[in-house]
Design goal:
The complex is a heterodimer of chains A (657) and B (101).
Chain A: H1 2-11, E1 15-20, E2 25-28, H2 30-34, H3 40-43, E3 50-52, E4 58-63, E5 69-81, E6 84-93, H4 95-113, E7 117-122, E8 127-130, H5 132-138, H6 142-145, H7 160-173, E9 175-183, E10 189-200, E11 206-215, H8 217-231, H9 241-258, E12 261-269, H10 272-279, H11 281-297, E13 304-309, E14 312-320, H12 324-336, E15 341-343, E16 346-348, E17 352-359, H13 366-382, E18 388-390, H14 402-412, E19 418-427, E20 433-444, E21 448-450, H15 452-462, H16 465-485, E22 492-496, H17 499-503, H18 507-518, E23 525-530, H19 531-536, H20 538-550, E24 554-560, H21 567-572, E25 577-580, H22 582-586, H23 592-607, E26 611-614, H24 620-628, E27 633-634, H25 645-656
Parallel strand pairs in A: 17-18, 20-22, 22-23, 23-24, 24-25, 25-26, 26-27
Antiparallel strand pairs in A: 1-2, 1-6, 4-5, 5-6, 7-8, 7-11, 9-10, 10-11, 12-14, 12-17, 13-14, 15-16, 19-20, 19-27, 20-21
Chain B: E1 7-13, H1 18-34, E2 39-45, H2 50-55, E3 63-68, E4 73-77, H3 82-88
Parallel strand pairs in B: 1-2
Antiparallel strand pairs in B: 1-3, 3-4
The chains are: A alpha+beta (657), B alpha+beta (101).
Chain lengths: 657, 101
């Protein structure tokens, strides 16, 4: 019986420790001994301590050497051991229970204190728990939503499809997260970032759904605020330079796709500084705000008014079919600003100067649009303020219609408005025509003949010189070959080149192609470059000129004597002909200086074994001088005006017979 | 020369848990009341000083050890009841001290 009892006590699941009156361990069962870091044999005889426990239980920590410890719940009772008073302490290991409790406590704390709203529903979607943050965000108290479906929060902003997709995702992945708009108790709708997780039972069916969400309306507001700050001017609320550039890119891309034009107005208030200086910055700011309002009300809905800073504004005028649309807007703006502004009890008159640039006519990028419109604005200011002006290349008074010119030139080729005329170069000794210079003519449908001096620079500036120059070469070669085919004595045709053409990497190839196409021998083609062009761009043109030379083409230097005669270069270039500038020939009759220069050029040419041609020869007297000084050839009205191909053919035919 | 304190107690605790702090507060209050100016109270965190706990063969916390006066006595468990603590440590309560009668 005693042995049996001993066995039971030994095997009891709770620890039992007998302590004597001094707190020394007299007996410990197996469960009891296992709680302590020393084994049972060492435990007996060790001084644990006199156990103190109130009515209920108390907790003891039983540290282990590895830093961990176990927690035991202790109860005690008085007893006797070997006839002496003793205590029996019952120790129950509650370590794991405590840990669980701690975890639950933590979970509860998190649940209650997190800033994120939490809703737990059962598998059927009834709300079984919400946290305080849920109430803070939605305005619903727990008792108002427990047992109900979270549908009560629906904002109505999402269609059925949205929710179907959401539940399909949860069914498939057990989880969904995204932005969702819900409605607060007060009716306000707001965006949430929500994460919904399904919790499954052992059989795999969902038993709970947990939705964790945060109200992101502030985030959204901040995002919008940031976007506003980055893209809009704080004072006027207008788009700033960043947004302007962005919109310009869009407008240009759109225009390119649709073949339309984009106008950019650059506007600067006249004498704005005066307002600032006399009425103060606050008045200045107020004026800028008022101006912004008037600008916005005087443009079309699709136009963008932006403030670049200071008193500078811009307006993008997209979808134009001609330059006039931009001018219309400029006029409307000037009109809108005409009425006085009432600032601090005073009537202030604010006018503006506006510069206009157009894509693709006078600018080809957002940057150049802004730059060119800015330049035009300054010109408008110079011309007396309170007006608008288109951007033009150059400052020349005569180029007033440059813009229309440019526009017209774009179509001149395809409309067949360009033609070539040929002015003979005559050998002074014999009167024989040895060459002709091909000269470009443009007959504008409205404005009639436009001098090359007017449209060639435009063609050079806009890059149209490329296709036009190619056309000239082909036309001249075709014509020369045609004359030869007519049985006329072969002559050279001289074609003027622009440095822009020479810069084209494949220019020599192009020329070869044209010669091949037209069947003209390279010997009968001469290219003319002005002296200033050759000297200014000597380094970059040298290579291509030698390439042309190697093909058999001749090189002529035009307007010789006016430029930067660097004999060094002249010797190194494959030059065949020097053409004395007409200004010297003009002065031959009375200007000894011009005579000296002409003489020197002729002498130079002769010594270098170059052909020298005098340009602009109009009188017998001039011709006499040239002959006397052994000038080889001459060109000018004295011999012939520039003629069209047929007229020249007749002229040559007459001279043969 | 400073007179050596008559009472010297050591409190062994595990970590600075709420229960440890409470035990310390209770014990300090008890000492202040019972042996004013005549005690030393030491606190040993057995996790910070495992060697000391091992040397003294401390098996559980909280343990209060009476170092002085001799002989050493220990109690373990709940320190809330002053009478039980004093009885457990075989210290006489102030009221029953010799000479008070």
């Amino acid at each position: 019986m005693a042995a049996g009892l001993q066995r039971v006590i030994d095997d009891a699941p709770d620890g039992l420790v007998i302590l004597d009156a001094d707190g020394v361990v007299r007996y410990a069962n197996r469960a009891g001994a296992s709680l302590f870091r020393c084994g049972a044999t060492e435990l007996v005889g060790a001084m644990l301590g006199f156990p103190l426990a109130p009515e209920e239980t108390t907790e003891l920590e039983l540290p282990h050497t590895d830093g961990s410890w176990r927690i035991a719940e202790m109860r005690m009772a008085e007893t006797e051991w070997n006839g002496a008073p003793a205590y029996v302490a019952q120790l129950r290991d509650v370590t794991s229970h405590k840990a669980l409790e701690k975890r639950l406590e933590l979970s509860d704390k998190v649940f209650r204190n997190t800033q994120e709203g939490i809703v737990v529903t059962d598998g059927a979607g009834h709300i079984i728990s919400v946290n305080p943050a849920f109430t803070a965000v939605t305005g619903y108290l727990p008792e108002e939503v427990l047992g109900r479906n979270p549908k009560v929060l629906k904002s109505g902003r999402h269609g059925e499809d949205f929710y179907r997709a959401l539940w399909e995702t949860i069914a498939a992945c057990g989880q969904w997260q995204g932005e969702i708009w819900n409605r607060r108790k007060n009716g306000e709708i707001y965006p949430e970032w929500m994460n919904i997780s399904a919790i499954f039972d052992a059989c795999g069916s969902p038993v709970y759904y947990v939705a964790v969400f945060s109200d992101i309306s502030l985030v959204k507001q901040n995002e919008e605020r940031l976007h506003r700050l980055a893209h809009y001017d704080a004072l006027t609320g207008l788009p700033n330079r960043v947004l302007l550039t962005d919109r310009l890119h869009q407008a240009l891309a759109h225009a390119q796709r649709n073949g339309t034009q984009v106008g950019l107005l650059f506007l600067d208030l006249d004498r704005f500084k005066l307002v600032n200086d006399t009425l103060g910055h606050r008045a200045g700011d107020q004026l800028l705000q008022e101006v912004a309002l008037r600008l916005e009300s005087s443009v079309r809905a699709e136009d963008t008014v932006a403030r670049l800073g200071g008193d500078e504004f811009t307006v993008i005028v997209p979808n134009l079919h001609g330059p006039a649309g931009a001018a219309n807007v400029a006029e409307k703006i000037i009109e809108a600003l005409a009425a006085p502004f009432h600032l601090q009890g005073q009537d202030i008159f604010a006018t503006a100067s506006i510069g206009i640039a157009l894509y693709p006519l006078t600018a080809d990028s957002p940057e150049s649009l802004i730059k060119h419109a800015d330049i035009a604005m300054y010109q408008a200011k110079e011309q007396g303020r309170n007006n608008y002006l288109y951007f033009r290349r150059g400052h020349d008074e005569q180029s007033r219609d440059l813009f229309e010119l440019e526009n017209g030139l774009r179509h001149a080729l395809e409309r067949g408005e360009l033609r070539l005329v040929y002015q003979p170069e005559v050998e002074i000794e014999t009167g024989r025509i040895v060459a002709v210079e091909a000269l470009l003519r443009w007959k504008h449908p409205e404005r009639g003949d436009i001098p090359p001096s007017e449209f060639i620079p435009v063609a050079e500036d806009t890059g149209m010189i490329g296709p036009i120059g190619e056309w000239v070469l082909r036309e001249a070669c075709t014509q020369n070959r045609d004359w030869q085919d007519q049985g006329l004595p072969p002559i050279r045709v001289a074609v003027n080149l622009s440095v822009r053409q020479l810069r084209h990497v494949r220019f020599a190839e192009k020329v070869a192609e044209i010669l091949d196409e037209t069947g003209l021998d390279a010997d009968w083609l001469e290219v003319e470059l002005t002296e200033s062009t050759v000297m200014l761009h000597a380094k970059e043109t040298m290579g291509i000129l030698w390439q042309l030379k190697s093909m058999g083409i001749r090189l002529s230097i035009d307007d010789f004597g006016t430029g930067y005669s660097a004999l060094n270069y002249l010797k190194r270039l494959p030059v065949d002909t020097l053409k004395i500038d007409r200004s010297f020939i003009e002065g031959l009759e009375h200007d000894s200086n011009d005579q000296a220069i002409s003489d020197a050029i002729i002498a130079l040419g002769n010594s270098l074994k170059l052909r020298v041609v005098a340009e602009g020869v109009e009188t017998e007297h001039q011709l006499g001088f040239l002959r006397q000084h052994h000038c080889c050839d001459a060109q000018g009205f004295l011999f012939s005006t520039p003629l069209d191909g047929d007229a020249l053919a007749s002229l040559m035919a007459r001279r043969i017979h | 020369m400073l007179k050596e304190a008559k009472y010297r107690l050591k409190l062994y605790v595990t970590d600075h848990t709420l229960r440890s702090r409470r035990a310390l507060a209770q014990l300090r209050q008890l000492c202040e009341e019972q042996f004013p100016h005549d005690y030393v109270l030491e606190v040993v965190d057995v996790l910070e000083h495992p060697e000391e706990a091992a040397a003294h063969r401390i098996l559980a916390t909280p343990t209060v050890e009476r170092v002085l006066p001799h002989p050493i006595r220990r109690i373990i468990g709940d320190l809330a009841d002053v009478d039980k603590v004093l009885a457990g440590l075989a210290l006489q309560p102030l009221g029953d001290a010799p000479g008070s009668k």
